[in-house]
TrEMBL record:
GO terms for molecular function: 2 iron, 2 sulfur cluster binding; metal ion binding. Gene3D superfamilies: 3.10.20.30. This is Ferredoxin. Keywords: 2Fe-2S, Electron transport, Iron, Iron-sulfur, Metal-binding, Transport, Ubiquinone. Its cofactor is [2Fe-2S] cluster. The keyword Cytoplasm does not apply. Transmembrane segments: none annotated. Belongs to the 2Fe2S plant-type ferredoxin family. PANTHER family: FERREDOXIN (PTHR43112), FERREDOXIN-2, CHLOROPLASTIC (PTHR43112:SF3). Residues 5-91 form the 2Fe-2S ferredoxin-type domain. CDD domains: fer2.
Length: 91
């Protein structure tokens, strides 16, 4: 059996990095499981409410978002890390 990698998510205002396990649906789900408040609405990449800055690392979208995403930003509801990442949540 092949083990799925566990990546770390470092959030700008949280001391300890979070563990992202491959069974999570998205980065948003991992943040919610850690009781971190994140703005969101659609959970499918339509609205862009869950936008965050990707400061380090790489991600991929499970489905291509319809919302406009600026370079350097990601939508937390439909993205998964491909490596350890550092993100900055909006204030």
């Amino acid at each position: 059996m092949v083990e799925k990698p566990i990546y770390l998510i470092q959030v700008n205002n949280i001391e300890e990095p979070l563990k992202y396990v491959a069974s999570s649906c998205s980065i948003l789900e991992t943040l919610e499981n850690a009781n971190i408040q994140v703005s969101y609405q659609c959970r499918e990449g339509f609205c862009g409410a869950c936008r965050a800055k990707l400061l380090n690392g790489s991600t991929q979208y499970s489905n291509e978002p319809l919302a406009f995403v600026r370079e350097g930003d990601i939508l937390l509801c439909c993205s998964k890390p491909l490596s350890d990442i550092t993100i900055e949540l909006p204030e």
